[in-house]
Amino acid sequence: MSKGEIVLGALAPHPPHVVYAENPDQNEPVSEGGWETLRWGYHRLARKLETIDYDVMVVFTPHWQTYVGTHFLGVPGFSSKSVDPVFPNIFRYNYDLEVDVDLSEAMCKAASDAGLITRMMRNPDFRVDYGTITSCHMMNPRWDKPIITISSNRNTHYYSPEVMIEQALALGKACRTAIEESGKKVVLVSSHSLSHRHFVTESPLPEDMSKEHIYNHSQYVWDMALIDLFRQGKMREAIDIMPEFTEQTIAETEGGGLVWMMGAMGMPDYPAEIYGYQSVIGTGNCIAAWVPQSDKREIVL
Amino acid sequence: MDHDIIQFGLYVPPHPHPLLSPGASEGYQRLRDAFDTCRERIENSDADLIIVYSTTWPSIIGHQFQANPNSEWVHVDDDFHYLGSMPYSFTMDSVFAEACVEKAQERGLQARTVNYDAFPIDTGSITALSLLNPDNRIPATIVSSNMYANRSETIVLGKAIRDALTEEKRKAVVVVVSSLSNRMFTEPIDPSEDRIHSQKDDDWNRKILEFFEDGRLEDLSQLSREIHGQIRVQKVVAYKPAWWMASIMGQHNNYDGEVLAYEALNGSGGAVIQLTPSAGSIGDKEFDEDDVEYYRGDRNVLDQGGV
Ligand SMILES: [Fe+2]
User: Fold this and answer.
1) B 213-242 residues with CB below 8 A of A?
2) What is the ipTM of this complex?
3) DSSP string across chain B
4) Which pLDDT belongs to residue B264?
5) Per the CATH hierarchy, to which homologous superfamily does domain B2-300 belong?
6) Cα of A15 from ligand 1 centre, angstroms
7) Smallest Cβ distance to B186: which of A71, A92, A158?
8) Which domains does chain A have, with CATH numbers?
């Protein structure tokens, strides 16, 4: 068996608004569109993924929040309806997905061997979180590959951003070990926004783009500072400023997704592919991808 | 003031153990027994409505009220999924939920009802309603906890729901779903060895329970920021349950308080507490700040204290 590898890692924000705007059959509410800059970026990334050979998508989500360790999906398939508790008016999505339980178990074990607290999630009634569903739908709307979801352990709140970073890096390294031993080709997905201050009101038409803008200029400047480091391939520096970025913009990076992915990918020192940046209900969202194989890497935007 | 509109208030923990695994420890069983006692007390009261304020249902777009007349699904907790599934079927009072939205908007709040098939009702609300009102004998509504709301917004929310109760001439039991100290153990524990995470958390919890037992709800409301700093993991901007509970029940200290149980739930402070509005004890308790409607000069706390 050849050595498994990570073929691409994506920062894939999951505001349910982008799925709502797409009007897929699976989602009940109907929209007039909206947030095209993000959606077109996702379409571009989805087209690229169709040219890449991979076996499974591994998603780290901040919307499966666990306090007692890190949990991994451990049921072969889930079929249910996901209703967003915060935006139920725009996201009621019927899903039917497959899980790569073998790799999930292997990552869980590797993380446990590395000293992290872990648990497999074996309850078939469990509802997969809307972050996972949104990111996966936008990256692979055909849902023809199995997925794995990893929960986000709430270290930032329980301890500090620094503790979160230590643990997320260790988790990433453990996942990489398991992936390499599995022989599989894997796409990693860090499912979250950057700056994360929301408006607390909503337009009568949520997709009214004349009302959409970043919550404030400070959020925007911070987001751009981070994206600039992505472009330059300075991920060590990006992780170094993560505690301050997270605090200043109450960023969704607090869950640890991007840090986990960078840990798994060995802290890339090459430029990220940038697919788009747009605000959604005030939050800052960037789609970016890191591609280890240099001949597959592009300048997108 | 018409005390009948609030029959009594309950403060209960959000974790599912009393529902799913009461036999796993003596402490969980004591919490379960306390829930059962409260269920009987609701049955023996004149309440025709249960209003749940759940700290495990966060919202962003203002304040959401559950209004699906038959809220049905099978829920699984994010952390404690191995304890089992939580099927539920709750009767919600959609008319009252609409009234709450109207009153909240009149008081300047952003609010809406939610009425969607398969809406994911949170662990805390499911645990509370399953144990307190198992046969849907009376309808309920659940109100979310806005993640950005601070004191004034939370207090106005409580007042708005009270407005709706008054106008609709309802008699309610209000249920706050929240831990006291909320730091859990981050490693698996044997339930029989569950204990409060730290001595400090336990000390503070017991001080809060003293206040509850003395009926000093407004004092707890005034202490909310201190409680948040001392024993709450900083997940949200503030410790809001006492603000909401005081504002809906009445911002004073004239309650009969009873702590039915206090136990650890994976390290967090879980208590079942009842507060009943009382006509007595006016003047023997002090609180720091009035809720002023008309300025009559500085207040002498020894002379006042009533509603
Ligand atoms: Fe999110």
Assistant:
1) 233-235
2) 0.95
3) --GGGEEEEEEE--SSHHHH-GGG-HHHHHHHHHHHHHHHHHHTS---EEEEEEEEEEESSSEEEE--TEEEEEE--SS-GGG--EEEEEEB-HHHHHHHHHHHHHTT--EEEE--TT----HHHHHHHHHHSTT-SS-EEEEEEETT--HHHHHHHHHHHHHHHHHHT--EEEEEE--SS-PPPSS---GGG---S-HHHHHHHHHHHHHHHTT-HHHHHHTHHHHHHHHS-TTSS---HHHHHHHHH-SSS-EEEEEEEEEEETTEEEEEEEEEE-SS-TTSS--S----SS--SS--TTT----
4) 98
5) LigB-like (3.40.830.10)
6) 6
7) A158
8) 5-296 (3.40.830.10)
